[in-house]
Amino acid sequence: MSERKRGSGTRGGDARGSEAYGGDVRGGEAYGGEARGGEAHGGGVRAQLHHRVPDLGALELLLAVARHGSLGAAAREVGITQPAASSRIRSMERQLGVALVDRSPRGSRLTDAGALVTDWARRIVEAAEAFDAGAQALRGRRDSRLRVAASMTIAEYLLPGWLIALRADRPDTAVSLQAGNSAVVAERLLANEADIGFVEGLAVPDGLDGVVVAHDRLAIVAAPSHPWARRRGPLDPAELASTPLVLRERGSGTRQVLDAALSGHGGLAQPLLELASTTAVKAAAVSGAGPAVLSELAIAEELASRRLVAIPVEGVQLRRDLRAVWPTGHRPTGPARDLLSLTRG
């Protein structure tokens, strides 16, 4: 064949940017021989699509040229300079291996190949617009609600302030709060029943990532009528461990910290009462049922009014970290991310 065609199908010879059934092809599809930047059947490699298809910005520019018949007007529409637009069109022509635009002093006109490519470009851009609209709808659905799971102390004494601040930033987000012990919070996150969680234990539960958002300390408290309220010196760990106490249930962060603190001193005695909420433990202690272990966050009012008395204790570590947690590898997004930022602000 005496004439080599650019931008058309050939069955032999040299073709650039076209379909070839033999020989050397660059940027196209080859059924034999060598393929560069295209798809080769018979020992070659299949290039990724983004190497062979122009990006959305270039396709939008081509559509603007078709609308205006002017490269300068098209450049203004997409917000770039005319030299940048001209360079992008040339780059697209090299990538596709065909001339797309005829330039003249009277303006810019699509070639026949350019008109065909423009039709294809329009479908791609419309598909991208549909994709974008769908993604926005998904974000809107995500942002319309926030499911929070938190251990009792955090749910009662810290989260209300954080959620009020979040509402100021996201008034249209509906928030649901599920309160439970730290083990239950972990279960809800791993079952995808919550978007973010807050726990009080010694460490991040298995299967979760987390970050410390606050600190807390456990206190031993009793009603003023209890003998411990009148003692002169601090409790020692052995006496604390051997005394039946009013406690939170197993699985709670409070119980985990206390168990660890007294593990070297004989461990906890059988609880006097084992209750499922901080409020219930506090009420029992105030009523004189027995000494209790509570977060300092929960007892400020009772200590100030002398309904409870803090009992000093030495030789045990009762400080704990309060953490935000989420499933491993899935850092919070949307409202959950904003709530996390507020806790650390």
Verbal overview:
The chain is an alpha/beta fold and 345 residues long. The protein contains 13 helices and 17 strands. The strands form five sheets. Strands 9, 10, 11, 12, 15, 16 and 17 form a seven-stranded mixed sheet that branches. Strand 13 (246-248), helix 10 and strand 14 form a beta-alpha-beta unit. Helix 2 (56-68) packs across helix 5 and helix 7 (159-169) packs across helix 13. The longest helix is centred in the middle third of the chain and has 32 residues, at 112-143. It starts with 13 loop residues before the first strand and ends with a helix.
The average pLDDT is: 84
Q: How many strand units?
A: 17
Structural class: alpha/beta
Please count the helical segments: 13
**SSE run:** EEEEEEHHHHEEHEHHEHEEHEHEHEHEEH
Helix and strand topology:
Blueprint: E1 14-16, E2 19-20, E3 24-26, E4 29-30, E5 34-36, E6 39-40, H1 49-52, H2 56-68, H3 71-78, H4 82-96, E7 101-104, E8 107-110, H5 112-143, E9 145-150, H6 152-157, H7 159-169, E10 174-179, H8 182-190, E11 196-199, E12 208-222, H9 237-242, E13 246-248, H10 253-262, E14 273-275, H11 278-286, E15 292-295, H12 296-304, E16 309-311, E17 319-327, H13 334-343
Parallel strand pairs: 1-3, 2-4, 3-5, 4-6, 9-10, 9-11, 13-14
Antiparallel strand pairs: 7-8, 11-17, 12-15, 12-16, 12-17
Helix pairs in contact: 2-3, 2-5, 3-4, 7-13
